[in-house]
Amino acid sequence: MPAEKFAERERVDARDKVLGKTEYAADIAVPGLLFAMLVPARIAKGRATALTTDAAGRIPDVVRVFTPADFPPPAGPDKGAKGPAAAPPPPTLQMDIAYLGQPLALVVARTLEAAIEGAEAVQVVYAPDSFSPLITSPGAVREPAEDVKAGDASRAMAKASTVVDVEYECPAQHHNPIEMLSTTAVWSGGRLTIYEGTQGASVVRSNVARALRLDPTSVDVKSNYIGGGFGQKGAPQRQTAIVAHAAMLLGRPVKLVVPRGQIFHNATFRPRSRHRIKIGADASGKMVAVCYDADHQQSRKGQFPPAYHEAPVQMYGIADYLGTAAHVRIDTQSPGYMRAPHPHPSCFAFEGAVDELAYKLGRDPVAFRLAHNATADPITGHPLSSRFLNECIAEGARRFGWDKRDPRPGSIVLADGTQVGWGVGCGAYPSITSANISRLRVCADGTTRFALSGHEMGQGIRTVITAVLLRELDIDPNQLEILIGDTSVTPQHMTAGSWGTASVAPIAEKAARALKTSMADLLGGRQPEGSLHRQLATVRRPFVEVEVSQLGPGQEAKALQQLTDTGYALAGPAYPEFTSFSYIAHFVEVRVEPRTRRVRVPRVVSVADCGRVISPRTSESQVLGGVVWAIGSALREGSEVDARYGGWLNNDLADYVVPVNADIGDIQVSFIDRPDSMINSIGAKGLGEVAMVGAAAAIANAIYHATGRRVRKMPIRVEDLL
Ligand code: MOS
Predict the structure, then answer these.
(1) Rounded Cα gap, residues 182 and 160, in angstroms
(2) With a 6 A CB cut-off, is 229 part of the ligand 1 pocket?
(3) What confidence score (pLDDT) does residue 80 get?
(4) pLDDT 10s digits, 547-572
(5) What's the gap in Å between 592 CA and the centre of ligand 1?
(6) How far apart are CA 219 and CA 571, in angstroms?
């Protein structure tokens, strides 16, 4: 029975964050700490034939310089492992160079200054090879992936009476969380402890253990707070095992904070992608066929899949869909997951193409979308667990005032010549669930401890957990400790893919109810009333504790072992009996200045269907952040390559341009807040990523409405509108 609506509640960690009290990984004080700095490769491909470390070693306070000679090659992947655990751990230090900026050496010193000076003093002799810096370069290798198919798209397309056939392009982009990548490693008494901002503490544990040939049970990973993850801290990070090995060889704790410029080269990123989309409509104006071919840049050995069809195929119930996709392998580091990894670029392209088709048919873009309701997954034929996209569109249109829109492009011009445009764009994102194991203890002394699987990366997962516990239990919220991101308390499933809330809210409810049952047993069958702490004191029990586990719909019990072994055990979005997605609709106003052609976004209305909203305040923040990022993506961000040298040219926040406060206008967020009765007991689907999906398309569509100019790429800059 899905629960009632949740009330507004403040973010539980807000006060500490504002006071600067929250400790991120690199803030944790460890006695006797040494500081490290990496030495990056200066060529895009080839080999380091010699590394000379004498000069670096002579710098005062430099303790040691580690080179590839100190690092054995890592062990291979685990047999039968799935997900990130199946991938080989990131390489440590090696002489073969696969991309510009790859680490070749690590200098460890008593001070950060000495480590930096030491890193600059390491001399490297290179044997460069020719390389392919771009997907259009000679030597780029196309590697098709599996097709995504529903019905017979070629046959349906042949019968279509109106067709759009368009190509969109999205640039490479980098995440720039405020908290930079860092690793602090402590080797003591035969145990390795790693403090690191990671979205997957158990994945880090198993990866580092494999890279360094350690027993995973001798490794603890602690990621209590993350200062922004966005997928950059999901995959195992390049520096972790390097720093851990240095700490083990020295017998001293070592900390490395990777400088922003090196993060651009060594972290995963959003790859450049191309989207050729053909949509056919029948004589009644219904979309009946899609042929969509996508490709993206990939490293020579990378595995991030070109899964661009996951969202578009679930948007409008188009029965005949052929999705093809390919990697284009070149010489960069491996790309990876960056907020709404596939749906953001694919819905930029697809929602642009849908808008183009609506215009070609002479239909209003809102009414056109509303006419394509869907109830089933075209691929599996299973029902959708819930889809309130039409409700999102209708509510958004109402709040935005869409009915006052003159559909003609270029029809709204202000007195100073500014062109005004209104656009709509929608999005979908898989609603996934991870297995979870938890332990809840309520004590007579007033404290409560809840250990479970999850990571706080700023999205507000502790606030979600608190909201559910406090609705079920009369406990002291000021003495509630939520232990997450720590492999020493319970296995830590990777938190990503917007599955956090749907994975912690149901287990919090289940644990709380199990605890009430245990409490009733202690009270001789009487239901607990009033403070649980006081009642425990009354019956002279120091605490009551329960352990519960949680699986996704249809997920097999062996997933719990998989969670324990690998930190990765997911279910959905195609569950055995249904498919589950979250949805959103964005409405955007743009203003295009007549002389400079600068684009402003004064007004956005976004309405999301994420099932039941557990934490209204942090949910709104998620959508605000997602829309802001979409504005950045649509109008600013792009990682540039200088093809002569490879790597990334604008590898800092001065040149990788993101929106600032002055770029952001009014963003109005609301939720349908209707529970999904199939996905879990609380009815919550995912939100973090769907938040930004389709918003960039809404901006491009609004720019078309303002100017009559269809710009089929991101970012859209002044030079595209001159
Ligand atoms: Mo996300 S890009 O799956 O952390």
Answers:
(1) 54
(2) yes
(3) 60
(4) 999 999 999 999 999 999 999 999 99
(5) 33
(6) 27
One-letter-per-residue 3-state SS of 70-86: HCCCCCCCCCCCCHHHH
Asked whether 236 lines ligand 1 (CB < 6 A), one says no
pLDDT tens readout for residues 118-155: 999 999 999 999 999 999 999 999 999 999 999 999 99
Q: What is the three-class DSSP state of 51?
A: strand
pLDDT for the residue 564 = 93
End-to-end CA distance of the chain: 56
Element (H, E) at 420: strand 419-430
For atom 4 of ligand 1, which residue has the closest CA? 231
Asked if pLDDT for residue 596 goes beyond 70, the answer is yes
> How far apart are the CA of 95 and the centre of ligand 1, in A?
31
Provide the CB-side half-sphere exposure for 63 (13 A, CA): 20
What are the tokens at 95? 């002489």
Expressed in angstroms and rounded, the spacing between residue 341 Cα and the centre of ligand 1 is 7
Strand 287-298, strand 320-329: pairing = parallel
How far lies 708's CA from each of 359, 535, 701, 704, in Å?
11, 69, 10, 5
* Whether residue 337 has its Cβ less than 6 Å from ligand 1: yes
Is there an atom of ligand 1 within 6 Å of 497 CB? yes
Contact between residue 436 and residue 560 where contact means Cβ atoms under 8 Å apart: no
Q: Are 412 and 420 in contact (CB under 8 A)?
A: yes
Cα(260)–Cα(187) distance, integer angstroms: 27
Question: Is the C-beta atom of 458 inside 6 A of ligand 1?
Answer: no
- 8, with CB counted inside 10 A (0-12, 13-18, 19+), is exposed
The pTM (predicted TM-score) of the whole model is: 0.97
Q: Could you report the per-residue pLDDT of 355-395, keeping only the tens digit for each?
A: 999 999 999 999 999 999 999 999 999 999 999 999 999 99
- Ligand 1 centre and the CA of 68: distance in Å? 31
693 lines ligand 1 (CB under 6 A): no
User: Is residue 448 pLDDT above 90, yes or no?
Assistant: yes
Position 565, amino acid: D
Distance from the alpha carbon of residue 306 to the mean position of ligand 1, in angstroms: 15
Q: Given the structure tokens 């195992």, which residue do they identify? A: 236
CA of 138 to the centre of ligand 1 (A): 32
Distances (CA, A) of 508 to 11, 443, 462, 614: 17, 17, 11, 12
* Contact by Cβ (8 Å): 124, 72: no
Please give the pLDDT value at position 1.
45
How many Å apart are CA 176 and CA 173, to the nearest integer?
10
* Residue 611 in tokens: 């099932």
Does 388 contact ligand 1 (Cβ within 6 A)? no
Ligand 1 atom nearest to CA at 229: 4
Q: Stretch 162-180: mean pLDDT, rounded?
A: 97
Ligand 1 center to 235 CA (angstroms)? 9
Q: Using one digit for the tens of pLDDT, what is the confidence trace for 570-595?
A: 999 999 999 999 999 999 999 999 99
Q: How many CA atoms lie within 13 A of 587 on its CB side?
A: 21
Residues 6+ apart with CB under 8 A from 64: 57, 107, 108, 246, 249, 250
Q: Is the CB of 338 under 6 A from ligand 1?
A: yes
Q: What is the pLDDT of residue 527?
A: 87
Q: Is 234 in the pocket of ligand 1 (CB under 6 A)?
A: yes
Q: What pLDDT does residue 85 have?
A: 62
The rounded Å distance from CA 271 to ligand 1 centre is 14
pLDDT band, residue 3 (cuts 50/70/90): low
Task: Evaluate whether 571 touches 559 at the Cβ level (below 8 Å).
Answer: yes
Tokens of 416: 């100073």
